[in-house]
Q: What sequence folds into this?
């Protein structure tokens, strides 16, 4: 909660908030308070900044939670009846609670407050509310006070006040004042809890705003872990995603751990282990000390983790991951925190599923649906980028154009489904033989292309010959399958991508003419 003393709302600002609470528009507020609409908007901006909120509705809620306003719209006072005049003696905690609840009622005027200690905790509130303050209450004999509330807890003060008051003035002291204090203190606690809940839900909304525009799994999952750990005051956390087999987990994001923890980014699900337990839950689980578990996670133990709060991320009854929060000491946690964490896991699950869908669509747009290799468009983009890089840095690279020999005959003999199997098998062999730095793509039909950075023709020819040999030695189900390849290198065989592809294509057809199952460069 914001400290009371850190928030200063002027009477005009409170009047604006009360008008909003009654549902009045900016035009109605400006008319009733004799302000321009621009001035109303300016004051609202100042109010939101003071209360650290984003909307006018949240500003009203925060003002109510802080005790500046009533939680309901008060009815108008009877104009024929004068306001009740009340004095408060004692500005300690009890006085603060009583002042908060009295000032909300428009039919009550607080005519003074008194405390022998000018530094009492409630004096700042009294000054902010422009209530006359005195350290000596002997003056009240001449004041027209309807009710005097004594919250000092002193029987001596009560006796002195009783002697000074007129018979028409009612004195609330002793048990009456204590009852009033207890009621207002309970109300204060409820308002504090409401404010805490409001702050937490605002944080969740803020998290939603942040992750809404993130389309990277790494960025989105780290944002979730970071926000969750801060919100629940846990120094470490992680988010793991279920792999495609359903038998293992992939670490998507982590915070507060060592490099060794981040390096162990994949793990199998151990039967009876922490992950296995969580995957069979639908709600969060909290472990105050994992050392009490019969089979504690060895990685967490090595990291020094003691407490764990975790929950599965579920979308349409399917677990897509797990969100963990960790502390390096034994910790207790409130029921409200578990409830908040449960809400947060809903955000996390929706985000993981959304980003997975985005990444899947991106992958489909970049890759060939049958072979999984880069499609023609993406392949050409990579070759263009490599060409630009080589020109800037006086570098070199080579292009291999590859074609499956007699593929039309294979399709005619065994059908297109069997032909598709050949395309997939050849794709796997090309990927397996190529270097990590090489780019393999499907150029079209039964034709493939490999971009080989930093190698010239003399260096790439042995690699191309190895590719041809690998395919020829592979046991296909129906008959032998071979490939032919043509090689062109930058800048030796051309300076533009178009020239290089044409040169490699010409060499490919030369290999076809010379008997196939070979490389020409």
A:
């Amino acid at each position: 909660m914001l400290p009371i003393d850190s928030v200063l709302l002027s009477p005009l600002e409170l009047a604006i908030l009360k008008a909003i609470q009654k549902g009045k528009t900016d035009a109605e507020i400006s008319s009733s308070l004799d302000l321009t609409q621009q001035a109303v908007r300016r004051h609202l901006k100042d109010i939101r900044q003071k209360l650290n909120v984003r909307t006018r509705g949240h500003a009203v809620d925060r003002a109510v939670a802080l005790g500046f306003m009533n939680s309901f719209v008060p009815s108008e006072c009877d104009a024929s009846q004068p306001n009740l005049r009340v004095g408060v003696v004692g500005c300690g905690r009890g006085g603060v609670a009583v002042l908060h609840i009295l000032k909300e009622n428009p039919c009550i005027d607080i005519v003074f407050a008194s405390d022998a200690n000018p530094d009492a905790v409630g004096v700042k509130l009294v000054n902010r509310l422009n209530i006359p303050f005195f350290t000596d209450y002997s003056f009240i004999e001449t004041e027209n006070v309807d009710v005097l509330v004594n919250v000092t807890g002193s029987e001596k003060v009560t006796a002195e006040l009783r002697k000074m008051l007129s018979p028409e003035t009612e004195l609330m002291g002793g048990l009456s004042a204590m009852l009033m204090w207890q009621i207002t203190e309970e109300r204060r606690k409820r308002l504090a809890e409401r404010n805490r809940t409001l702050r937490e839900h605002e944080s969740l909304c803020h998290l939603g705003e942040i992750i809404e525009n993130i389309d990277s799994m790494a960025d989105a999952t780290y944002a979730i872990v970071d926000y969750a750990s801060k919100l629940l005051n846990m120094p470490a956390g992680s988010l793991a995603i279920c792999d495609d087999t359903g038998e293992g987990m992939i670490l998507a994001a982590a915070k507060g751990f060592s490099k060794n923890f981040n390096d162990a980014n994949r793990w199998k699900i151990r039967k009876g282990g922490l992950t296995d337990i969580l995957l069979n839950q639908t709600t969060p689980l909290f472990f105050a000390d994992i050392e009490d578990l019969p089979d504690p996670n060895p990685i967490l133990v090595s990291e020094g983790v003691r407490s764990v709060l975790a929950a599965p991320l579920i979308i349409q009854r399917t677990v897509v991951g797990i969100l963990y929060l960790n502390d390096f000491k034994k910790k207790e946690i409130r029921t409200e925190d578990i409830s908040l964490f449960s809400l947060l896991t809903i955000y996390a699950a929706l985000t993981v599923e959304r980003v997975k869908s985005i990444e899947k669509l991106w992958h489909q747009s970049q890759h060939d649906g049958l072979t999984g290799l880069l499609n023609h468009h993406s392949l050409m983009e990579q070759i263009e980028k490599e060409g630009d890089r080589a020109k800037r840095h006086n570098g070199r690279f080579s292009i291999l154009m590859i074609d499956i020999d007699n593929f039309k005959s294979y399709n005619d003999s065994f059908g297109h489904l069997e032909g598709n199997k050949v395309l997939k098998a050849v794709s796997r062999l090309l990927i397996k033989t190529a270097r990590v730095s090489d780019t393999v793509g499907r150029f079209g039909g039964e034709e493939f292309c490999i971009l080989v950075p930093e190698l010239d023709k003399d260096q790439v020819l042995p690699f191309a010959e190895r590719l041809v040999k690998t395919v020829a030695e592979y046991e296909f189900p129906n008959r032998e399958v071979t490939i032919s390849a043509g090689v062109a290198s930058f800048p030796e065989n051309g300076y533009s991508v178009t020239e290089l592809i044409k040169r490699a294509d010409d060499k490919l057809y030369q290999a076809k003419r010379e008997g196939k199952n070979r490389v020409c460069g």
